[in-house]
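Quick one - first record:
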Amino acid sequence: MASSLALWAQLLLLVLGPVASASPVAVDSAQQALQPPEPQFRPRKLNGKFLHITDFHPDPFYKVHSSTKSGIACHRRTGVAGTYGAETTRCDSPFALVNATFDWLAENIKDDIDFVVWTGDSARHDSDEKHPRTAAEVLDTNQMMADKFIETFSSDQQSLDVPVIPTLGNNDFLPHNIFYPGPNKWTRKFSEIWHRFIPEVQRHSFTHGGWFWVEVIPDQLAVFSLNTMYFFDRNAGVDGCANPSEPGYEHMDWLRVQLQLLRERGMKAILIGHVPPARTSGKQNWDETCWQKYTLWMRKYRDVVIGSIYGHMNIDHFLLQDTKKIDITLGAGELSARDALEEGTEFSTLSREDYLQELREEWSDLPGSALKPLIGSGAGAAEADASGKKRKKKKDKYTKIGGEYAERYALSLVSPSIVPNYFPTVRVIEYNITGLEDAALWTDSFDGAEPAILDLDNWEDEEEDSSEDQLQELKRHIGAEGKKGKNKKKGKKGKGKKPKKPKDPNFVVPKDPPKGSTPGPAYYPQPFTFTGYTQYFANLTYINNDISAPPDLAESRWRDRDHSDEEPKHSALKPREFKFEVEYSTFDDEVYKLEDMTVMSYLKLAYKMSLEEDPDKGKDKGKGKALEEEDEPGAADDEDEDVADVESQKKKKKKVKNQIWLHFLRNAFVRTVPEDELRKMA
């Protein structure tokens, strides 16, 4: 504990030292060092729930009532930066938001979950030239975040009550996005920071490459922390997953071997990472060779993998990986170019809208002949027998989607963030624990020994990249840029013929699930299947209480956007009580109507959103207020309103024909985009 306290003191010195005038600790009581909650002990049981939380981006320089303008980053001048953050801006999170979030989790979530997945980006963006990021600051904020998880999810400040599984984000090191092959100084430092989270038997794997896994339910369920930095298309320090000398290749090989081991042990797996495998016609997050292998692994280990969970993009959405697009013959030099997806402060609402529209276009190519008859049916394409075995009846009808359980596709879930690019958000996912009531529970094996204190004074002297290394990296980067330019797709058919077998003679194609086996939990409801989730958000516009709402709209409902040029309505801070509230739940969402979180459920949802008109229009009358019945801003309530105005309102409503897609967009931006703008997007 002494080392932990030393690190807290070190951060205060960092903030209060040479930049005292800009320090939020010096000028703002709400922006203070992170404080642990009071410990409480309660007996533990398996709940069938887990927490996903991502992208905190804590900022030690955040100043309340500072300017939210780009480049100032809520660090100085006067503006409407709120006590708990500046929603819908490019500013990062104040410590007040981090503290309040953990306090709320301790009071409302802690005792109801089995484990926590924390998908990276626990340092601020480098968005203020007057306060450039340093290695010491990045490591300190990550250490503080690790301490907060330990303090919040422990009863006695010694043993964790539940496992916490972290993963590296692209802002958790310097320079951001560039992560070199391991072992490197960052994997070594994070091995120390996360020593409470990484099992002893996994320490070598993590130090070597930044990846590991945890048995969150012993002998039953494992969570894999992937180092997506080695797959990330914007990481110029590596080059994909095709070359055996690349860490991405090694990472994929490690994942294949570990998933095979779990199959042999009869276990299931959840995969987590920071950067999701987003891939549309014009944009992508991962190097194509990594996407190809990952999608192949998802196909081959569909009996093992329950689902994949990511952060990074700050918007609420999901991805369907089509295994029909797998081409294991692709070499690194034969790939068509796509633009890399931007993230964080660089990823505007407009570019996100373009990305979501491209996703919808991809979904419009889903096999309608197989999916159209299923709209309105249950979670699966057909009933299974009592044992859950696949039935051969009507097999041909579902061939285009990979059989009765849509095994052609794999699903990835992407959650919105804590950093208030929109509103701060957390997600609690529930999974089936039928028959697991007597399962062994995870226990913390921490022996009380603390790792060596981080030697921050000598950090800058740890130059692991020699001049020769830098020269080779520069050549690699130039070569990669040239490759992208030369191999742009000119048409659908591409260039030349593809070879008939993989380029790499050592490439191992995993075996399919055993013949006749039950579909995996991602495809057929059974123990460990994700059943649904509840998403919580904090309406900072209302909580901060710094901006006046329009007179015709209640403050509790007002969520507008750009206020960078405004002054706060109070000279003194008058925030309301901080709390998260339910944004929506898949268990009772009358628009999504998800039976569960199987691939088939999401495939049907994607198909319905791709249609020009809402396929559910007019159905389920009396089950609650339908989305198309919601009042539009400015809609008249007077029964004596002029007939022409009524007709005008009707025409406005007819402009958006697919209300499911509109609902998806509303959720994607965590209800921060005004309704009229949403309708323009839709």
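second record:
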Amino acid sequence: MGKNKKMEGGGCGGSPDEEPPRDPGVAQHHSFNMDDLEGHRAHSIYVGVHVPGNYRRRSRHHRHRHHHHHKTSKDGSDNRPVTPPSQRVQFILGEDDDDDGTHDSHPLFSEMETLTEMEGGELEWKETARWVKFEEDVEEGGERWSKPHVATLSLHSLFELRSFLLNGTVILDMDATSLEQIADLLLDNMINQGQLTFEGREKFRDALLRKHKHLYEKQKHNKENGNTSMSRLPLIRSLAEIGRNHSSSKNIGSGFFKALSFSGGNNASATSNPDGTMEQSPSSGSITCNHSASNLDGPEHKGNTHFMRKIPAGAEASNILVGEVPFLEKPATAFVRLSQSANLGDLTEVPVPTRFLYIILGPTGGLPRYHEIGRAMATLLSDEVFHDVAYKAKNRSHLLAAVDEFLDAVTVLPPGEWDPAIRIEPPAAIPSQEPRKNKKPEAAEVIDEEEEEQKMREEAGLTRSGRLFGGFINDIKRKAPWFLSDFKDGFSIQSIASIIFIYFACLTPIITFGGLLGEATENRIAALESLVAGLLCGVVYGMFSGQPLTVLGSTGPVLVFETILFDFCKTMSWSYLSFRLWIGLWAGFILIILVAVDASALVCFITRFTEENFA
């Protein structure tokens, strides 16, 4: 026990009538005056020594005075403000470390393993989930990994995790380099704190030192034996076999420890083979993280080198071990942070040194509950803020403050309004967590709706520039950076459907109204002229306008206008085509004037009613 620099535990020690531990995050502040201090000096009481005289009277009087001064309101409640969890976390992260960098944060790879009973009745730690940044679960049947997804947790599991951190064993900066040393120090501490009885020590140790099995080992074994075994397998398995495998995968751990007899002693980390020999867990051959990288490639610590490419350089591991055992009457939990990260043999899937361990073992029948609590711990360790606090925490209250801050930041989804079976895809861009770390109290900003609307108009180019063609020049500056990309993006396979649609959307009305115009204008403007006009206007508009996909062509109002115009020219004996040319020139001249004076700024005052009438 002397090897631990910082060690905390609590919860189960003492008599049953002992007051339960209080939440360190909500501290009560007592006020004292000079009379109280003098009273404490004058009436010192020594535990275990009988004090004669008027001890009871003085003690009663002292308690009365203390109670009187503690009240801060009429109802006797303490009205002192409680520091919010976010501010406590910012204070913890803002503290300067006085050590040699042992508490510096590293990227974390988290792995959760479940104590599972194998076919021969032996117990193994079986990998069930892992986290780099997002969660990956072993799919039903235990054959492959799921896609990374955002972890969805139940609020109850987070509250239970907080309760276990408050009342369970917490050991910070444990000085150990092997899983056996960790188990011995941890069990001694749990027995001292009353979480575990001395009779259950060896059984608990035996469970901790069981062999660890990872999914990549099974996949590798299947690949090596694929040529021989797959040829003997039938092409179609029976439905009974499929149902049997499916039920066994869903009921993992339902029959834990049925045929188990805990041996304890020095054989705690060994498993028996059919021939009677004992297979030693590779966890016994642990090496420290100070060894060279060449040692990590040895036969006893090969690891999943293929998945190692996805883990950032300098990463450390956190291992979460959950399971159910018959010798416990209530769950026993422990949170351990090593003073120096160490490679613990086959504990981790990849050759990454372990820094954190979270262990939760409980009585049979509660494995789903323990599994969710383990997922909650792994998700917390993958959270950037809790991850940093876990490295810098100096006591249990720091971890509790980080959990409270996480609870303040989470979003709760009501039941019945979403399907928990649907996995949430990771976001394209992960939002920064710096505001949670360095949140500064800011004065409430008064939002002026008129100023916000004015900014939106300026960004859209709907404000007067105050100079001739100022808006036109600003449009060119805004459009220039994306001018070429707008056309390059069109040369994509995904754009073929849109191109075909736009082509027919422009061609069809031109031909239709072109034929009607030919009848109305005595073939002065017919389908051929409409096609040429649509070609020229469409190309020019597409090259220089801000909306290359705008549909151009004749419409019903244009047909009515041309019919009226032709009848008017026929009545006045004017040349229809000459008059039509002058109309186009005047329309272009008026548009140039409107552009010069930034008349487009008036578009913001056009309502949807007006827009739909002219659309």
